[in-house]
Amino acid sequence: MRIKALTIRILRQIFRDKRTIALLIFAPILVLTLLHFVFNGSNYEPTIGLVDLPEAVSNSLNSSEAGHFQNYDHMKEAKSAIEQRTIDAYLYMDGSQPSLVLEGSDPTSNRAVMSLLQNAFNSPDKKSAKMDIDFLHGGSELEQFDYIGPILLGFFVFFFVFLIAGVSFLRERTTGTLERLLSTPLKKSEIVFGYVIGFGIFTILQTFLIAAYAIYVLGMYMEGAFSLVIIISLFTALTALTLGILLSSFANNELQMMQFIPIIIVPQIFFSGLFNLEAIPEWLSWIGPLTPLYYTADALTSVMVRGTGWGTIIENILLLTGFSLLFILLNILVLKKHRKI
Amino acid sequence: MVGDSDVVCVNHVSKRYGDQAVLKDIHFSIRKGEIFGLLGPSGAGKTTLVKQLAGLEVPTDGENVIFQQRMPSLQIMKRIGYMGQSDALYGELSAKENLEFFAAIYGLKRKERLQRIPEVLKIVNLAGTEKKLVSSFSGGMKRRLSLAISLLHEPELLILDEPTVGIDPVLRKSIWQTFDRLKSNGTTIIVTTHVMDEAEKCDRLGLLRDGKLIAIGTPTELMADTSSQSIEEAFLVYGGAVHEN
Ligand SMILES: Nc1ncnc2c1ncn2[C@@H]1O[C@H](COP(=O)(O)OP(=O)(O)O)[C@@H](O)[C@H]1O
Ligand SMILES: [Mg+2]
């Protein structure tokens, strides 16, 4: 009864603030759309200068469609072209050995040049070199976007629930409504549960819209069940909510709440798998398992890219629940500061 | 001094925050149906004391007994209406939504809510504004809505921390008329104030200074005792100032 009243009030407050609602729904949609176009845009086609190459070589290269070619008679011309950045690289004969000079300041163009040349020099016609490639998960159509998409989805849920719940609880404290609530026979656990249910309902709605947009409009890779994505988001929101409320006790105003973003939120991104986890040095790698987003990202990637079911994510869900229970306990302890019983 | 008809008994209560002694051995009681004023300058410890009575704080020493039970007690808190120094309202919600929320928190059934909400709005003169968002309310309107919320569950004991701050004299008068009406229905009211002329309207006064209860009695008693013309003068005498005449 009382929990229901709290839940209704929280939802009313969220939906009354049109600007925040717009931010919560459209900011993730905008970011995902931009990423979609950035990562799935057409591949970069490099321009390569060919300096006085044997006919056979330049012919075989010119037939490649992955780039553009410019023939030069002298090195000098090629050098000035590369300095003006009209070409990304040039190829010349060093004795009998072909040599490559790259402009070098842009990794994307470096990679494009190298892969083009590798393809051109290795196995142009040799059928024997071809092999069949199978993918255990994903597939050749899996793009960078499909891999980071699930992680970002989890991040958005975590970030927004953390911030909005934290700020609303902070306001509850600074405007005196928390004190008023505590002057009623309301139990402290009822306050926490009211918040959990209110934000839980909101998270289901938010995740539903964002995930549906990413999957059905942007065509994000989706192997598993949509319902599992919602469930994972819900537990992520629970963790974010309880952590947000907890940390709001240590902030005196909204700006101080924002200060938790670079300390609490951003570092989690580095350990969430958005960047290759193997690349993290050994002495830092213990941090990952301590961050909730690590488990969210793992579960979402499992479901969306690998198409796995309950079995593989249950452990992640349990760990997120563990975090939440810990934070709820700490919250009730912190609320003791405001009322002893 | 502590008897059966006493609704509130403050029993040798002290409170310290770290090194600072905020309340020092406060001892008094309040009878059923009286309007008791706690008068004292800012920082005297009024808020600290009424928060203890509302069950939000606990004393370092001594005890507060309300309706024969030691505070804090959730059972007793149901029978108390508390209005803090800040308005404690949700600005994004309308007046009615605020009232509905707190009514549900106090456990009022739907039928009771439908009946009580218009009643309390009428008491504080806010009828007709229930659809407006609280963020568009003036300071005085917020204060009155806050008061209305503390009346919702018809508490037997009403604890009001500076209820008339920021309210113009006309409205202040009408609020005090409300207190008198509630009192005649048997409600006990504790108000804190630092406005002296308001103090004269209380049945009894406790003068608080630097965490000490320096005097207690009806306004007439306090003035006669110090042969003063006003509560303000009396306060100064009890506070140790030399009487000018
Ligand atoms: N939570 C607290 N921690 C430390 N000091 C406090 C706390 N609450 C009140 N005080 C101090 O207690 C004194 C009395 O405060 P308060 O009861 O608010 O006075 P009043 O309501 O009469 O203006 C003040 O000096 C205040 O700084
Ligand atoms: Mg005060």
Summarize the biggest pleated sheet of chain B: 6 strands, mixed
Main sheet summary of chain A: 4 strands, mixed
Q: What small molecules accompany the polymer chains?
A: adenosine-5'-diphosphate, magnesium ion
> Mean pLDDT score of chain A, rounded?
85
Neighbour order of strands in the largest sheet of chain A: 2-1-3-4
The total count of strands of chain A amounts to 4
Low-confidence stretches of chain B: none
Shape of chain A: elongated
Rg over C-alpha atoms of chain B, rounded to the nearest angstrom: 18 Å
CATH class of the largest domain in chain B: Alpha Beta
Strand content of chain B: 25-35%
The CATH topology of the largest domain in chain B: Rossmann fold
Structural class of chain B: alpha/beta
Give the CA-CA distance, first to last residue of chain B. 34 Å
What's the helix-strand series of chain A? HHEHEHEEHHHHHHHHH
Query: Which chains make the largest contact?
Result: A-B, 27 and 33 residues
Q: What number is the mean pLDDT of chain B?
A: 90
Subcellular location (chain A): Cell membrane
GO molecular function, one term (chain A): ABC-type transporter activity
Family (chain A): Belongs to the ABC-2 integral membrane protein family.
Protein name (chain A): ABC transporter permease
Short description:
The complex is a heterodimer of chains A (341) and B (245). By secondary structure, chain A is an alpha/beta fold.
Which features characterize this protein?
heterodimer, A: 341 residues, alpha/beta, D-Maltodextrin-Binding Protein, domain 2, four-stranded mixed beta sheet, 4 strands, 64% helix, elongated, B: 245 residues, Rossmann fold, six-stranded mixed beta sheet, four-stranded antiparallel beta sheet, 9 helices, binds adenosine-5'-diphosphate, binds magnesium ion
